[in-house]
Structure formats: C-alpha cells, structure tokens
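Subject: sequence -> structure tokens, single chain

Hey, anyone have a minute? Need the predicted structure for the following. Not urgent.
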Amino acid sequence: MKSLCLEDPRGKLKGLTPEQFLDSQIPLWRIWARWTPDDKRLRLFNDLPLEQKAILYDVLALEGPDFASGGKGTLREGLLEQYGSAKHIVSFRSLLFELPRGSTTKDTLAELLNCLLTALENSSRPTSGEQSGPFKLFTELTLKRPITLDALQLVEATSMIEDTPKWHVHNAVLEIFTNRECIAGRHILSLQHVICALEYKSGEALSKVLLMPWLIEGIERCISQCQLAIRTHIEAGAEWSHLIMEFYTFCGTVKSSGKCFARIDGKVRALLEALPSIEVLRTVLEIYAAIGYETMYEEVFSSNRARESIEAWCISRLIEKSPTVKEEQENLVGAMVEIWSHTKTDQDINNEKRKLAILVSRINSPRLDHNRLLNCLHTITILPQETTTCLLSNIDFYNVQSDGQEGNKQSSQEASCIGFLRLLTTGIDDAGLVECWRFVLFVMMEASPPTTMLEYIFDHFRVRQWLQIVRDVYAAFADIVETMALLPLPFLLQERSHRWIQRLSIFLPTLERLENTSVSHPSITTALKFIFKGGEGTWVDYLIGILEDLTKMVDRPVERLMQKVVGQLESEGLNAKVVASCVKALRASTSEGLDACEQIWDGRYGVTSTNTPTNDAEGMPHPSSSESVPKMPFETSPIPTVVLEVMIAGFLQDNHLISTNEVAIKALARLFNLSIHDITIPDWKLDQAALYWAAEGQNILNEAERLHRLKRALRAKDPEGTKILLEKLGIEDISPLDEEIEELDVEVAGAVEKLGENEVEMSFSLAGYTELQRSGLGIGDAKALLVRLFLDYSDDIPTAFCLHLDTDVHDWNSEHTPWVPPLTTSARLVSRILHRNLNHVRPKITRLHAFIKKMIIDLTESCAVCGRIHHANGIRLRRSLPCDMVSCKRTWDMLPLDVRFPELRIDTFAVDLILTTVYAAARCGKMELLPGCPITNAVWVQGILDTLPHLSTLRPVANLARHLASFHRDAERLIVWALTHFRGFLTTATGILKIPSLPTGTHQFILASASPDLEMKYSSSLSSYSKYPNPKTTVLFHGTSLDRLPSILASGLREYSGTSLQRTGAVHGNGIYLAEEPSFSFSYSATAVSWTNSGLNGMRMVLGCEVVGDGNSVAKGVHVLHDPAKVMVRYVFMFPGSAHAPPSQHVVPAMASAMSALRTGAV
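Reply:
Had a minute. Here:
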C-alpha cells in the first residue's frame, strides 16, 4: 500500500478495471472489504495488555477477518459456514470446541462461539477488584482444556462477582470446578469462598451454574475428611488446634448458608446445629494450649486427664455426636472453662489461678479422685490472692527441675511439702478449703521416697520443730492414716510413727540438749535420727531407757560423755543394748571413773578443743566455760587400738578401782569392741605401747620447736600483737632483734654490733682490695666498710640503712641519719644495690651479711649502677664500670664527676695524660682518632681544653660540674668522654708497678685494665697459647705520636699499614711494629704540644707492651705482629723531650714482674 501511494497508478491502470488492479496488487482485499466486526468489542480487545493478547491470539482472531471461507464478515461466521457435518469436536488452531452430544448443529456451535467471545469480553472488562482471577479462570477453562458450554456459562456467571483481597472467588471457583469429581478436605478454603459467593446478590447466576449435586457431595466429603484428619492428629498426639479452628469456621460458613445448608445430609446438618459457641471453643483450646503437649513435672503431676478430657470433648462436639466423652471428662472441661471465664483479665493473680488449676488437673493419684479434683477446681475461683500464691509456689517448687544432683531435687520436694503443711495448718481459716486441698498435700507426700522427708526435717529443723511438724501432719491426716494403716506409706504418714513421737514428746528437753551437743559431735545427729525413727520391740525399750538415764543426769559432769556414747547408736538398733548398758554404767560411776572413761574416749577418737564456749539447752554458756582464761584450740589424733587396750588394762589393774567404775570402763571397752586385760597384758602389746609413747614424746618436742618458729613468724608479722598475746598467755618474750642475733653464726656475730632497740651495725673488711682496686674504687686507705641498719620488725616501713668507710670523719655521738648517699664509687654502688633489695622486704641479718660480703668481693667485676656481674670470663678488672644497658649508662651519667672519676681528685696526672692525648689528636686535625667524641670540631676541642685550669686546683672543689662549666659549658662533656670512651682504668704507676732507672722527669702510667672486650680477647689468646697457669709473655715497646693514644686505649694496637693513619714505612710488610729496645721505639716518638695548663707539655711517649709468647722477630730487635689480640699495652711512659731512653736490661725485668702481678691479681 505504501508503494502504491508513492507511485502514480495511472500508468498501471491502463486497460484495467479497479477490481483487476486491486487483484494484482492486494490479492486478499475482498476478505478485508467484507470484514464487519463488533466495534465495541474490538475496542475492548484492543485495550488488553500485550502479554494477554499474546495468550489470547487465537480467541481474538475469531472476531477478525474471515480467512477460513473468505466470504463472511468475521472468522467466527466463516467457521460456521464451513461446519457441515454433525461433529462432536471442532478445532481451530489451538482452540478445541466440545459440543453437547445430541446437539451438534450450527446453532449450537454459533452459541458456543458467541458465548466464548462474550465470556472473554466480560473477563476483560476493567473492575475495582483483583484482575488476575477472572483472566486466569477464562484461560484455564478455554485454552487449557476443551471449550464447553457449561464452562463458558460458569465463567460468565463468575464474572459478575468481583474478587477482594479477602475473598478470591474466581480462583476458588476454578479449583472447585476443575476438581468437582474429587472435592475433599484439602479444598476447604476454596469451598468456603464459593459458599460465601453463592450468598451474594451477584451470585444468583453462579448458583444456577454451580449449585449442583456434585458440589453438595463435595461439601459433605470435605466435612468428613476434616473430621477424620482431626481425629487422626488427636490420636497421634500431633498438633490439632489449628485444624479444629479451621474446621469450625468452615462449618459455621456452611451452617449460615441458606442455599447449601438445607441441601446437605441430615446427620451432618444435625452435627452443625449442635456446634458449641466460638467463645467456648476458643476457651477450651486456650486451656489445651496452656496444659501443653510435653510434661516436665514429677510423676505425681504427670496425669494427662485434662488434656484427654478436652480431646474427647472436641471429638464429641465437632466430629461425632456420640457418647465418646464420659461424664467426668465433661465435668472436668466444664470446671476448667468456668475458671478461665472468671479469670479473663491479665492480672497476675488470675494467671496464677489458671496455672494452679492446670497443676491440680495433672495430679496422678487415686487418692485424689474425680470428685475431690472437681472440688479443688471449684474452689480456685474463690481462693484469696495470698493463698493462691502460696499454693502455687509450693506446688511449683515441688516440680522444680534438678540441676543434675538428685539431693537438690528431693530437697525442693520436701521443702514444698513442709510449706504446704504450714499453709494448711496456719494460713487457711476456711475448714472447707483445708479439707479440699489436704488431699493434694497427701498425694505429694505419699509420692516422696519413704525417708527423704524425714532426712530433710533432720537437716533443716531443730528437735522442737521436728515434733511440731509431725503433730501437724497427724492433725491434717489422722483419719486418712488410720484407714491406710496397712499400706506402705512414708514415715511421716504412718500411724506407728505418730504414736512413737507422742512418747518422745516427754523427753523434749533431753533431746534438745543432745541436739546442742551434736554441734561438736556430728555422730550424735545420726543417733538422733535413729531415735526419731523409733522402731519396734526391745529396740524401743532400750531407747526409752537411754533417754530416761540422760534425763536424770542433766547438768551433771557425766552428762556430756553419756551424750557422746549415745552418738554411737547404729541403725536398726544393732548395738542399742550395748549403748544402753554403757549409759547406765556411766550414770553410776564416780568422778575418778568418769575421768578414766573420758581418757579412753579421747584416746579412741582424739581430742578437738576449740575456744567456743559450750551452751546449754536454753542457749546460755555452760557453767564450766570461762572467759577469763583464753583457751588455745588444739587437736590430737586417735590412739592405736593396741595402745588403748594397754591403757584400759592399766585402769582395770589399779588396786584402788571400785566396782562401779570397773563396770563403766568395761562397758565402754565393749562399746568399742576392745579386748579387756584385767589380769595380765601381752608383752607384745606392752612393747608397741612403749614405742608409741616414745614417738609421742618426740612429737611433743617437735611441736614445741614448731610453736617456737610460729612465735617468731607472728612476731615478724605483728610484733605488738604478738607481744600482747604472749603476755596474756604468760609466755616469756624477747625482742625479735635479740632473738635473731642469738642465732647468728660465730663468724657473722663477730661482725654485728647492736646499737639500739632495732639498730645494728655490720663491719666488712676491705683488706682484700689491692692498691690498684683501692685507687679505682676511690676508697683510699680504708680498712672496713660499715653498714648501719634500722630494722622495723612490724614491716610498717622499709629497712633504713647508711654506709661509711672507717676513715670517714663524722660525729658518731650525734643522731645518725639513715640513707645518706656515700661519696665514693664503691660505697655508692653498694648503697644502690642495698636500696633496691631492701625496698620491699626485711631480710635476715645472716642473709644480708652474706649478700654484702659477696657484693664487696665482686665489686670491681660488677656494673657500677645495677650491680650485675660483667661477662669478663675470668679477666681481672680493677674498677666498677657501667654495663651496656641504656638505663645504667643514663644513671651513670647523672652521678657526680668525682664519684665516677675519683682520679680527678687523687690522680690528676692520669687525667692530664688522657686530656693531653685528646688535645694532640685534635691538633693534628684527624677527628677519626677521636671516635665518638661529642665535640666534632677539632678547633673547638683545643679551645675547650685551653680554657681549663691546672688540674691540681680541682681537688678542693665541692661541685666539679659547676666549676668546670664556669670555664666552658662543654668542658664536662669533653672530660667525661675522654675518661670513659676506652672503658679501662689508666692510673699513675706506684709501688711495685713503678719502674726504676727511668730518666728524671719521666711520668709512667699503668693501664691496669683495658676495656672488658680487649681484656677478654687478650686473655683468650694467652690461654690458647699455653696450658700452664703462668704462660710465657714478652715485654716489647712501641713508639708513636701522642695523638694516637686515644684510639690505642679504646681499640688496642691495630694494623694501620696502608691506611691514612700509617705514620712510617712498613719495611717488613704490614703489621704491628714492636721493638725490644726502648731507644728504638723512642726514635719514632715525636715531641707533643699539650693544652695550656697541662703538666705534660713537650713530652715524648713510649708504650710498654705485653706480648703473648716470644713475639714475631723479623729482624734484630724488631717484631711484627699480625694478630692484635696477642698484644696488650700495659705501660705509658712520658719522657721529657731532652731525655734518653733507658736500655732494655734496666727496665724489662721490672716491667715483666709488674705485668705478671697484674695477671695474677697481686696488685
């Protein structure tokens, strides 16, 4: 058509009529020209959603052009034109039309096609309800199955009813119609929707189509199957409440339907007419849910009668109208419903009443028959709030779940029974209520094990309360107990028990006295249980006799022992006769016999004495107790049987023993099943007794020693309190300090002197220090270190102390102030370590003496701050140095200069030498010779040293740091580094270390100990060279300029050949060059210029070295070493510039002797 519109048709119309032209261009134009659809229906179909159009494509085509016959106005008419024979089934594309048998005419087909389009038109018309239901109904009945006239009429009738969110009529109609041959219980909801729809005004048409016999049969079948399902669930114990409510709702719908109810079977109609009200049914189901499916209660509360009654009631009222429910079940349900109807509010009391009703309905015992149960239930609604709460709490506690321990579970049951009993006897005044509820208590008590209630009473109540509880039980159940005398009941419910308690009541004071004694003798408690249980025959007579004898001996001395004998009673009265005879014999004994029997008793069971006064039956202190004299608690062990038999034989063989006492002793021996030797004693028993008492004597001595140590420990913890206690006990006391001094060893006691009540002074010899060590530690000529201690034995304050040398000048008569910081390095180190160890605990004098003595021995080998021993592997150090720990170095740097470096006051030339070498190194401009120097500029180093005064002026200065700062602010930093960077001890040679035959004006210094690292390496080389104690060494000399000494002191002699630090040529190759003659080395030493106020200006330096073995001779008098560890600088000789070096034979012997003395520790 588009091409025809774009082209001029006149050229193509030449010689053709219009019909011929259309035939050539549009062959089907006549079909489209004949198309005469229903415009209104066509517009309705055009508004359908695309997805619906796709589904309904073949249905919509029926209103389109006639492409079937080509001659009709619509395809629907064309299909009718082609229908010629009597066909039962007509198909078009996906559509399948089923005509009624016997009416296969064109008119029937025309009606079917017209109904189809009308049904589609009605199903597609917009409504205010759900849209999917009508469309689904239409497609399910037309597209997915053969199209029938009944189905189309159903669709048309249903289309008059709109779906709502609550009622889905179209879906329900679809489900019912498609399952019309097999409607069952599973279609209950759809049936309910359909039945409701039939009652609508718009449902008249639907009634005509749907209200068929098959629908009524389906309703009846649904009711029957639902009843069967509910019964099956009830019998299987499955959840059924939701089913019965759903069924009840359906039955109510059927019952209210005017169109369906009249058509159903008469029996079903009669059942529906007898349905209970919805309120009653909901109440019954609420009760059923509250009862629960699982029981977590004790067996006595495990009955399911209420649940079973409700199930039977529901079957009778909703499933079958037959006498399946018994009268008692009907009454029980009625009583429960009555309780629920009177407790509709949410108040706690009403919830408690409902719970109480459920618990009572669970009671499983013939004692609480149906009538008694109903009586209890009927009284619940009138129970006061407090009574309801008490009843419920007791029954709840009876059913409390155990925590895995059976004893706890039983205790809760017994406690609940006792509480229930008290409520009935004292808490309820209405006799009718008591009469009703006492049977509940009886059932609870009867269900308990025979003796558990009795055991509970023993463990939780006193004797007077025991008796009252039994009286209350008898008062509550006297008539029941008498009628059930022959039945096996718990002890408290037996008539025999009540008669026995009546007999015991007259002995109540005696029983209470026994009870008071049982606090210290638990066996009496067990005996009381036996007495309380009673018995029959002679056993009872013995018990009465025992109680009578005890009653006659009240407040007599013998009463306590008689009570303890009663505690030996065994269950079932096996030894009642022996106990009764023993009690009677004790009653007749004298004071001497009582004393012997008490000794036997104590020997059998031991003695446990406490400071607790005994009380009589009224709770008052026993007359024998005394508050004026304190009693120390003690305990003894039982005596062996053989020894006890010997003891009894000794009492019986006493010629002065009277007959009554003899009877008592023998009765007590029989009670203990002991052998009686009243004539002779077997020798072997005598021997064992002798050994026992010998061991006991030794134990007493050991105990005395233990008590002595205990006294010391108490005194150390609380001296004042211990002193008061000892005075009260009349025990002599000495001061803790005197006691400790008395126990000192002879060696320690000679060094300890008591100066005051808590003050002592200890003296420690310093004679073991060599002259070098004294110089390094700064102790001078001191012979002893004095440590004064103030010991606080109450530990209120830490131990105070101070240290002094015996050469210190002070006023010993003035008040002594503890913890005065000492001025010397050694004393300060000892003080720091003592302060750290005494800060928290007061040590023993012996231990403290050994600690300080060892510390003095290890002083030169220890860190100058923390006291930790340097890992020097046996090398000898002459002064304390700080260890490598940062904290120690920091603390060391904070100490005064003269403490760290006593040589600033006592050996100024040694300091001058070190400063001179630093000055020489800075003057040559090579700062690498001063590694680690804090002043990095060589000119500044010279300037600082040139500002210093003569070192001799520093000796009297009190504050060296402040004094040095007045010359230059960095003076202290530079001096501290110079004196510490090599970590050794360089001092002026004196005594045997001073070498004779040196030129006048020569200063000689000894490196007593290099740094620990250098000393360890040299010592290792020396020990590996020879296995002998005093290995071979050689004295050699090394000449160099003074600027090299700082590096040599810090790192030792090193091989610098071929480096920037090489001073002279290496004729014999690389290595450390040494000479046998001082003069040879002297030629390599240049005259040095020192700082302004130095005393060593213009000097030349030669080093005296100790070499392992014979050295390494490479030429006459010349040695070259390649291992720095084999050479150690020991001497530094400073010769005047004009002096001549001495020959080796004048100095080497003395140097070798001095070096040997250094190695062996002689200096």
